[in-house]
Amino acid sequence: MRVQFPQTVFAFSAVTVCVLVYLFYAQNAQLANGVLSVEKNIFNQSAHPGDIKSDVHQLSFAPMMISSKRNTSFDYRAEMKELNDVRVPMDDPRLVQIIRDYYIDPPSLEPYNLENPESLEYSKGQAPFVDSRLNYIEGGFFVEAGALNGERGSNTLFFEKVRKWNGLLVEADPESYAILKSKHRKAFSINACLSIQNYSSVVTFNKGFNFGRIYDNKEAMNWVKRIGKNLPVNTIQVQCFPLYSILLALGQTNVDFFSLDVEGDELHVLQTIPFDKVNIKMMTVEFAHIIGGGRALMSFVKSKGYDSLLKVQRLDGGVNDIIFRRKGLSH
Ligand SMILES: *[C@@H]1O[C@H](CO)[C@@H](O)[C@H](O)[C@H]1NC(C)=O
Ligand SMILES: *[C@@H]1O[C@H](CO)[C@@H](O)[C@H](O)[C@H]1NC(C)=O
Ligand SMILES: *[C@@H]1O[C@H](CO)[C@@H](O)[C@H](O)[C@H]1NC(C)=O
After folding, report:
1. How far is the CA of 42 from the centre of ligand 1 (A)?
2. Would I find Transmembrane among this entry's keywords (predicted)?
3. Number of DSSP helices (H) and strands (E) in the chain, helices first
4. H/E run at residue 324
5. Any atom of ligand 3 within 6 Å of the Cβ of 197
6. Is 228 exposed, middle or buried (CB count within 10 Å of its CB: 0-12, 13-18, 19+)?
């Protein structure tokens, strides 16, 4: 099913798909204890013909690790300040090394500590759609920013829990990040923001759980004002890194699924990505808070070689994503 604009068709299809997929997962999750089978042609959404069956496990797996060494007597913050000040390029080896050694936290090896441990699917419908479009692959790699508390509305927990993917969770707000860490996700994580420019920097960040965003420019300040009185200004200083620098630190420039929801800076973050050096297969990107909206987002992402597959919206406004897939993708 390849859905195109107009919006009503998009929205209707998205809701239908989400509901169907939800019902399916929910029902099976209850019926089967642990292992169940998904026929890929149920929703006619696969990128490929055929009758591949894919088992859905809630297995534990040994997550990917990187070797990093922290030298406790090394003042990495002072070094980081220097790198910020001179705005080193995204691929500067010192920047990459410092992210690897001092900012990235490894996946947890402890059992999950989730609020909803029985659930398989935590997203608002994006995960099952992306899953089907990626042909149910196992062992992929995801990036999710902002990751919030790592569970609520997570677009990636399904891939980790069920498809045994490795991944990276990016969350700028230290309070949300502390909760995220307590969930014992099997993914790398980093308490930082994704840069909206082509260099690392420390920025002012306005906290606000799922409304948190960088707050150092007029666009963001106007947005916070517009969003209203329920969002007090409560700022902190946060270190931002370009996504590319973090991926280099992980040695992982292949990303099967990138979930991007940073309250209005999505397009700015995407504009930092060297799409010729990073291989991102699919993305779900929130468009509601972008200046220029979905149209501006699609125009940019399409220019980088992607098709927009689906606009996911819910009547209550709880989801406003566009899902993209790289053109000519074959697995
Ligand atoms: C959907 O899948 C069914 C069963 O595999 C197939 O017969 C049908 O032609 C498919 N429809 C589309 C639109 O691909
Ligand atoms: C650790 O950092 C200190 C201070 O920069 C330095 O003198 C020392 O050589 C470093 N140790 C190692 C093992 O790199
Ligand atoms: C930032 O980097 C990206 C990726 O290399 C590039 O496409 C873009 O033009 C750069 N932006 C600026 C302002 O230099």
Report:
1. 9
2. yes
3. 10, 14
4. strand 320-326
5. no
6. exposed
Q: How far, in Å, CA of 287 to CA of 173, rounded?
A: 21
Helix (H) or strand (E) holding 297, with range, is helix 293-303
> Which pLDDT tens digit goes with each residue over 233-279?
888 999 999 999 999 999 999 999 999 999 889 999 999 999 999 99
Please work out whether the CB of residue 71 comes within 6 Å of at least one atom of ligand 2: yes
Q: Is 8 in the pocket of ligand 1 (CB under 6 A)?
A: no
Residue 274 Cβ < 6 Å to ligand 3 = yes
Ligand closest to 97 (CA) is 2
CA 78–ligand 2 middle distance (angstroms): 14
pLDDT at 15 over 50: no
Q: How far is CA 100 from CA 70, 76, 79, 143, in A?
A: 9, 12, 14, 16
Task: Identify the helix (H) or strand (E) that includes residue 204.
Answer: strand 201-206
Q: Quote helix, strand, coil % in the chain, to nearest 5.
A: 35, 20, 45
Nearest residue (by CA) to ligand 2, atom 3, is 74
Residue ranges and CATH numbers for the domains of the chain are 7-64+82-326 (3.40.50.150)
Pairwise CA distance, residues 186 & 169, whole Å: 10
Q: Say what the pTM is.
A: 0.80
**How far is 95 from 165, CA to CA, in rounded Å?**
26
Closest-CA residue, ligand 2 atom 13, reads 71
- The C-alpha atoms of residue 17 and residue 165 are separated, in whole angstroms, by 23
Tokens of 238: 């946060």
